Structures are given as structure tokens and as C-alpha cells.
Amino acid sequence: MTRHTGSRLRPLVATFVSAVFFLPLYLVLTNVFKPGHKIIDAPAALPLPPTLDSIRQVLTRPDHLFWYGLINSIEVTAISITILTVLSAMCGHYLARSEGLGAKVMLVVMLAGLMIPPAVIIAPITEVLRSVGLMTSVAGLVLVNVGYYVPFGVFVFAGFVKTIPIEIEQAAAIDGARRLRIFWQVVFPLLRPASASVLIFLGVWIWNDFLNPLIILGPAEGTTVTVGIYRAIGEHQQDYGAVFALMFLATLPILVFYLAFQKHFVKGLTAGASKG
Amino acid sequence: MTATHTRTSAGGRRGRQRPTAHPPRHGRGRSARRLGHLAHFGLFGLPSLALYACIVLIPIGISVYYSLTNRNPFNPPTQWVGARNYQNLATDPDFWKVLTNTIVITIFVTAASNVIGLAIAVLLDRRGWLYNALRGVFFTPVVLSGVVVSVIWQAILTDDGLLNSTLRGLGISDPPGWLSDPDLALYTLSWIVTWQMAGFCVVVYLAGLQGVPHELYEAAAMDGAGPVARFRSVTWPLLAPSVTINTVMLLISTFKIYDQVQVITNGGPGDGTTSTIAFDVIQTGLVGNRIGVSSAIAVVMLVFVAIVSTVVLQLLQRREVKA
């Protein structure tokens, strides 16, 4: 096609393709606000008039599945990403600024961790956690998250520290500042873009994680919201309204978090995608 | 994951040696410098390394050890069996089926997400609010959890789901059992994962496309190159780094696929028609308690991931250099 027809057709084609792609998400959104019988009769129709019955049903479940899950998810995600950012920023700094063979080997060993499937290590992990009494606890899940995701953080920070002139640190060292103070007061503030990438990527991954919380938290200590969805579909498979409402509410916090940091997400994702 | 990897290796390739962060003060010798370095490691490097070792390295070691035993926590004692678990796997048709399933899903998702992602990126590679909004549409599934995506598609694709009731309404009396037909379920599952991952490729390809200098298109157009020729000779070679990122990222993340299998098909229909390696490891080990056998499967999986991602990364980076 010529440039001219292309420019007129492109918005239409793009919108149509996107609409088809979006259809599954539309089906969830529209049915969250519909009464049960209308979901079966007219699944694709707009929710007119909209109802909050399904949302209310999820929020007032007698077993508090959503609220317990939400509290667990927030706790696990917030604590994990805070520790991960601090630890991996420091470790990334160490690896970026060290030249010894030991540091090089350590970098390779840590980067190898990026491709280790969780299924390979989950069984031994449960035994390690059980032996220290952290199985079925939020602390245990946080520990696993930190150990498993620290390579990703180290990776991002090590790459970013290299772009920061070392002279800044040397100047502070000459002024007599101690190593830790230099790092926290001089270097860490300069790492903000890397910290944002790490926070948003790991925040989304940990919030959405299924296998680790399913196995480590267990049913006794409650679940995260993501595992909660899985447990809910086991109970009432046919009640799409309730399931969709639960998914909607479980996704909302992380979606808001993602939208707030979106710029860094895409930037982190696409670093290196273009030859610069 | 891989995005940053490429960045780091690019930084490494630059190869500029930087002086150490904390030069020794005058009048202090090598031992002081070594002490300073040790303190730097102990304070900055060690905590991360220690946690990583406890959660990843040591469990891998335990997995390797268990794979050489008949461990079953409910059937002690644990005994050394040497390579027997591996030998059994080699002749176990179920294991080969699981391995084949995983390879089929991985290749399907990697290829389809790349093709679809590139096509959509080319389509959306324009400025303006409309294209910005549409990019957001494609990226949303990437931020959703595998569980959410699974439940959505299950509601659509089960036998009495939204798709088949629509098809019946259109007069098709016997629509396919997307998730209940043993010949179809594996491909349906692959499509669901593709739908989720395509947006990732869209974003990476869009960034790649925006990095292509405009003058190159103009030069090619002046040489009389049509849209297809321009794409082949200008766009495609310059997208090589994006292809690398997408391919490696998708290979690694699809090979370990677990959530979608657990939620949507539970390995079925029938006998393991959609079971993947990760799913099999969990079923055999944590559900079936045959830790010895599941550890052997896990070790095979680990070796497979390591070999495939190393080889693919090498191949694709060689292509990048040529381009």
C-alpha cells in the first residue's frame, strides 16, 4: 500500500487490532459490575445499570479471604522490595567498583541466578525453611524472595553504578567520609533511576508470584491475593461475578503502583534494546 | 531480566578499567588496602551473597544430592541410588512427553510472541495520544499475574465458556473443546501465554524501532526501496538487539512455565497432555513426595535451561555483531 492510504488506514487497523486484543480484559471489567444472571445471558454487554454487588460480596466474605490476602501481599511485597533495593544496591556497588578475580566470579555466579527456575529449588527451600522454623510464615517468604531476586537487583545496580563517575566518591573519601556514609549520602541518591526500576519490576513480580506463596505460606497462615484467586476458583467456579471482582480488586493495587512508576518500567525493559 | 543483562554486557565490552572506589591513603601499604577491600566486601557484598547462597546455591546443591537418592520424606530411610533416577527418566515415556510439551510451548510462545510483537510494534510506531494509549493496551497483560490471565482465559475457553456459547449462538453446534481436547489443549495453553507475553515484545521492539535513525529510511527510499525492502534492509538488521532480548527472555520465562498449567489444565486433559517440566517437578516432588525423582527432573531442567540460554545468547549476539 502507498504511504497515503497507509496513513489513513493505520489508526483504524491499530484500533481494531487493539480492541480484539483487549477483549478478554473487557469481559472481566464489564462483568465485575453486572449481576450474576446477566453474566450468563449477555457476557459481552455493557454493565447497565452497573452494580457493585460482586465487589461487595468479595469485600464482605465471611472468611475474609480478600482482606487477609491483601494484608499478606502488601506485607510480603513491601518488605521484600525494600530489603532487596538496599541489599542489591550495596552489592551492585561493590561488584561494579571491584576489580579482583573474586568479584568477577561472584558477578557471574549471581547473574546465573537470573535463569534458575523456582521449581528447581523450591523443594529443598521448604526443608531449609522448616529447619529454621520459618516455613508457613511471612518472614520465610520474604527471605526466599530476597535470596531469589537479589541477582536481578544486583544486575541493574551494578550496571548503573558504572555510569556514575568515581571521582564523586573519591572526593567524598578525601573529605574523610566513611564508606557507608559516602554510599548512602552521595552514591545512593544518584542511583534513583535504578532503584525505581528495581522497585517496580520486583514489586510486580513478587505481587504476582504464585508458586512460592502457594507452597511457603500454606493455607494455615492465609495466602496472598494472587494465591487467593486460585483458592477462590476452586470453591465457586461458576460464580464468574465474584471471581472477576476478586481478580479486579487483587490487581488494582499493583496496577496503580505500576502506573505510578510506568516510565521506569519501560525504560528498564528497553535499556539496551536500541544500539546507542 | 535480559534487558539489563545486555546493558551490563555492553558496559563490560566497553572494557574501560576504572580505578577502585577507595584508593589507599598515602603512607599505608598493601595490607591496609586489602583490609579496606575486605571491609567493602563484608559490608556491601557479603549480605546479598549469603542470602543468595542460602536460597539458591545451597538448594541447588541439595537438589543435585537428592537426585542421586531415593528420598521420600514419608518413606525413610533415604538411600543412595547413584544415577538410577536419571536412568529411569531416560526410559520414562511420561518424562519425554513432559519434556516435549515444554519444548513445544516454549518454541510456540517465543516464535509467536516475537512475530506478533514485531507486527504490532511496526503498526504502533507512530506518535500521538492514540498510539500511546494502544501501547498501554498491549502492555497491560504483562503486568498481570499468570493466575489472573489463566482465570480470564479459562472463563472464555472452557467447554461452556464465553467463546463456545458465542459460537453456538452463531449456529456452530459442535465448537472445539479448546481446553478439553487432548490434541488441542497444549496449543490453546501456548496461545494464552503468547497473549500475555506479546506486549513485552511490543515494548522492546518499539524501543528498537525508535532507535533506528530516520536518515537511513530516507536514504533507502531515495535508492528506490519500497516498504518491504526498507524493512528488510534497514529495520530488521538494526532490530537485532531487540530480537536478542525478546528471544532470550521468552525462552527462559516460558521454559519454566508453571502457573498457567496449574490453574488452567492441571496437566490434563487426560494423562499429562499439558504437563510441563516445572509442573512435573512440583507434582512428583511436593505432591507425590518422590523427592529423589523430582530432584533428578529438576537437575535435567536446570542443565537444559543453562545450555539453551547460553547457546541462544551466543548465536544471537554473533548476529548482532554482524548486523
TrEMBL record, chain A:
GO terms for biological process: transmembrane transport. This is Carbohydrate ABC transporter permease. It is found in: Cell membrane. The keyword Transmembrane helix applies. The chain crosses the membrane at residues 12-29, 65-89, 101-126, 138-161, 182-207, 240-261. It is a multi-pass membrane protein. Residues 70-261 form the ABC transmembrane type-1 domain. It comes from the Bacteria. Gene3D superfamilies: MetI-like.
TrEMBL record, chain B:
InterPro entries: ABC_transporter_permease, MetI-like, MetI-like_sf. The chain crosses the membrane at residues 38-66, 103-124, 136-156, 184-207, 238-258, 296-316. It is a multi-pass membrane protein. Its main location: membrane. One of its GO terms (cellular component) is plasma membrane. It is found in: Cell membrane. Residues 99-312 form the ABC transmembrane type-1 domain. Residues 1-30 are annotated as: Disordered. Keywords: Cell membrane, Membrane, Transmembrane, Transmembrane helix, Transport. One of its GO terms (biological process) is transmembrane transport. The keyword Membrane applies. Residues 13-30 have a biased composition (Basic residues). It holds the Pfam family BPD_transp_1. Belongs to the binding-protein-dependent transport system permease family. This is Sugar ABC transporter permease. It comes from Nonomuraea montanisoli. The lineage of its organism: Bacteria, Bacillati, Actinomycetota, Actinomycetes, Streptosporangiales.
